[in-house]
Write a structure and sequence with these properties.
about 300 residues; alpha+beta; OB fold (Dihydrolipoamide Acetyltransferase, E2P); 4-stranded antiparallel beta sheet; 4-stranded mixed beta sheet; 11 strands; about 30% helix; Large ribosomal subunit protein bL27m; ribosomal protein
Length: about 300
């Protein structure tokens, strides 16, 4: 209730009090003061207002999800420095496409794949109208690069000139080779069984493999695969490889045995041929009489050669 609405009840109460009490002077003064008090709509500070405890519909500051701003647009301008993972542009649809050293998310957000400077450009060689966003390592570079220009990659490393190691001589100062290669066993040795031995520098004239080559000879157990189907596939492949290796070894053994038998047969045939030639020569010498006409004394036949 406003104070203007209380003016008349207060005046009536004061007049009643004036008639009933013995202090008429004080009551008349109160009536004069209330009569002079003019409270209207223009005097809001004196009037006072009543506010609703619950706001009406549409008055709340909190909006629903359909009106929350999406905050789309460019987050980095041209020639701005970005690091890997920084968002460059947020969009709905493909107004801009990912170019050099940039990627595009599933909500069409373009982000940097490497640290560098942002470049907005067009590439008519790819598409006549599309716009691209790329990242370059040198701020002075311009995109797109030339069609056959060498691409640049940044591996967070410092460029250091690599010194070419001096060529190692084949022979040492003592005249023996610095490197000796030992092949594997069999007719077709596997490259995995090749051993490279190097001459020691301590003057012991001993050969030894390098440490990193010795480390490669250690066979470690492989990590178990998570998929049973993939594990069975690798097992079948490994079994097939072992079977092929065993078959190659068996064929190699059979071939070596065949070579040995062929060598023995060739040696036997060569001995028989030499024996027959010797016998034929002896028979020819025996059939020709000597110049004096006397027959040579009979000689026992030579012993038979055992093969």
């Amino acid at each position: 209730m406003r104070i203007t609405q209380l003016q008349r009840p207060l005046v009536a109460a004061a007049s009643t009090l004036a008639r009933s009490t013995s202090a008429p002077t004080t009551i008349r003064q109160l009536q004069d003061v209330l009569g002079q008090l003019r409270i209207g709509a223009s005097n809001a500070a004196v009037e006072g207002r009543r506010h609703a405890s619950v706001k009406s519909q549409g008055m709340y500051k909190l909006r629903d999800s359909s009106t929350i701003p999406k905050k789309l647009g460019a987050k980095k301008t041209g020639d701005s420095w970005v690091i890997t993972g920084n968002i460059i542009y947020k969009q709905r649809g493909t107004k801009w496409f990912a170019g050099e050293n940039c990627g595009m998310g599933r909500d069409h957000t373009i982000f940097a794949l490497a640290s560098g400077y942002v470049k907005y450009y067009k590439d008519p060689a790819k598409h006549p109208k599309r716009q691209y966003i790329g990242v370059v390592f040198d701020k002075a570079d311009k995109l797109p690069y030339a069609p056959h220009q060498m691409r640049k990659r940044k591996l967070n490393m410092v460029a250091v000139p690599v010194a070419v190691p001096p060529a190692e001589p084949t022979l040492s100062a003592s005249g023996i080779p610095n490197t000796v290669v030992r092949q594997g066993y069999g007719r077709k040795p596997h490259p995995r069984d090749e051993r490279i031995m190097k001459l020691q520098k301590d003057g012991s004239y001993a050969y030894r493999e390098e440490n990193w080559r010795l480390g490669t000879l250690v066979r470690t157990e492989k990590r178990k695969l998570g998929s049973r189907r993939v594990a069975m596939k690798h097992r079948r492949r490994r079994t097939k490889a072992i079977a092929l290796e065993m078959r190659a070894e068996r064929e190699d053994k059979i071939a070596r045995r065949k070579e040995a038998l062929d060598a023995q047969r060739a040696a036997r045939l060569r001995k028989m041929k030499e024996y027959r030639a010797r016998r034929a020569l002896e028979s020819n010498n025996a059939s020709i009489p000597p110049a004096g006409g006397a027959m040579p004394p009979s000689q026992p036949p030579p012993p038979r050669a055992e093969v």
